[in-house]
């Protein structure tokens, strides 16, 4: 259901060991017709956990739904606090348009509040970053309690920000009293989800008799899987092309590997196999190259494809607001925003214990 968002968040996925992170991503979209002015995404370990604005309240993970079912009032208060931050967020960033000729309220503003927690040592880390119209803008150095410009356009307001200590105190409060408690809840209810291992379903696909044969694996978790073709038990590389790792709507993953089967004599097809291997799982998923097992685009499947397409279009229509929010988030994050908190770094990217 949220495939586009999952794809955009994939590059952030998976902290190692016993360290977990949560991002609270806030967005202001003033002046955009037929679109909510303000929205919030909670991103846990690279997975969208929830999204809410004044009209939409969406929970994207089953483990979070379990928590909400057990603690509905706690979750309601958490959502209300996030939505109540809108006016303060707007006030804090009202001078972001100082550097441009835009009239006030026309820019798109993003804020990333991220907290990291080492469950074993109980050490915590955090950062706060702002973006303006898809560009890095201002970042908080929590060690020195100083804001610095990550964009030359923000330099005209940095002195004002550093002179106003309330901005730092607000950021610190949100990190300590908003982000960290929620992160610990997410770890408690979501850890088993992150540690599970699920083997995929594997299919052989082919668009036409002259097209490569696609070995497609879907539904596996985590994303530490590899696929390859082998002949007579030995991995082959000639005539083989690997596809990208992609996310599914439910948080699982998919990938494909292609084989130029047109050059293979029909009597030799039985010597070829597609192999999927998931890290930490001994059993492989092996699929023999067999003409009768290949699914292709033939007339008898057209009705099924049409029905499926209609369902997909209907589903995507339900989440278009969330998708647009994620696209804007990624535009900000892809411009040199580092999402892994490094414990030793240059002064311009240091983090500190909360």
Brief summary:
The protein has 354 residues and is an alpha+beta fold. The chain has two domains: 3-195 and 315-349, 2-Layer Sandwich (Murine Class I Major Histocompatibility Complex, H2-DB, Chain A, domain 1); 208-296, Immunoglobulins (Immunoglobulin-like, Sandwich). It is 30% helix and 30% strand.
Give a verbal description of the structure.
This protein folds into 2 domains: 3-195 and 315-349, 2-Layer Sandwich (Murine Class I Major Histocompatibility Complex, H2-DB, Chain A, domain 1); 208-296, Sandwich (Immunoglobulin-like), CATH 2.60.40.10. 30% of the residues lie in helices and 30% in strands. It contains 8 helices and 18 strands. It has an 8-stranded antiparallel sheet, sandwiched between helices. β14 (246-247) and β15 (253-259) form a beta hairpin. α1 (3-9) packs parallel to α8, α2 packs across α3 (72-84) and α2 (62-70) packs across α6 (165-195). The longest helix has 31 residues, at 165-195. The two termini are 36 Å apart. Mean pLDDT is 81; it is low at 1-16, 299-325 and 334-353.
């Amino acid at each position: 259901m949220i495939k586009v968002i999952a794809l955009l968040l994939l590059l952030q996925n998976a902290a190692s060991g016993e360290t977990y992170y949560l991002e609270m991503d806030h967005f202001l979209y003033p002046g955009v017709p037929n679109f909510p002015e303000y929205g919030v995404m909670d991103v846990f370990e690279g997975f969208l956990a929830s999204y809410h604005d004044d009209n939409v309240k969406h929970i994207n993970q089953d483990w979070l739904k379990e928590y909400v079912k057990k603690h509905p009032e706690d979750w309601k208060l958490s959502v209300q606090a996030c939505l109540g931050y809108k006016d303060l967020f707007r006030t804090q960033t009202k001078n972001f348009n100082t550097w441009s000729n835009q009239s006030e309220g026309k820019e798109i503003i993003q804020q990333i509040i991220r907290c990291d927690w080492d469950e074993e040592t109980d050490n915590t880390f955090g950062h706060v970053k702002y973006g303006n119209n898809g560009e890095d803008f201002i970042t908080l150095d929590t060690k020195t309690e100083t804001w610095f410009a990550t964009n030359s356009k923000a330099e005209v307001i940095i002195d004002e920000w550093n002179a106003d200590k309330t901005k730092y105190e607000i950021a610190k409060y949100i990190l300590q009293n908003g982000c960290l408690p929620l992160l610990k809840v997410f770890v408690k209810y979501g850890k088993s989800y992150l540690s599970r291992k699920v083997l995929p379903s594997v299919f052989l696909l082919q668009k036409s008799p002259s097209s490569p044969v696609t070995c497609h694996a879907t539904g596996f978790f985590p994303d530490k899987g590899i696929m390859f073709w082998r002949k007579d038990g030995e991995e082959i590389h000639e005539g083989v092309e690997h596809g990208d790792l992609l996310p599914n709507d439910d948080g699982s993953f998919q990938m494909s590997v292609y084989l130029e089967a047109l050059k293979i004599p029909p009597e030799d097809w039985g010597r070829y196999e597609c192999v999927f291997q998931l890290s930490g799982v001994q059993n492989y998923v092996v699929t023999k190259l067999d003409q009768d097992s290949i699914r292709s685009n033939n007339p008898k499947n057209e009705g099924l494809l049409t029905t499926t397409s209609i369902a997909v279009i209907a589903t995507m229509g339900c989440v278009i607001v969330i998708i647009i929010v994620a696209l804007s988030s990624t535009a900000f994050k892809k411009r040199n925003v580092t999402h892994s908190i490094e414990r030793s770094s240059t002064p311009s990217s240091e983090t500190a214990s909360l």
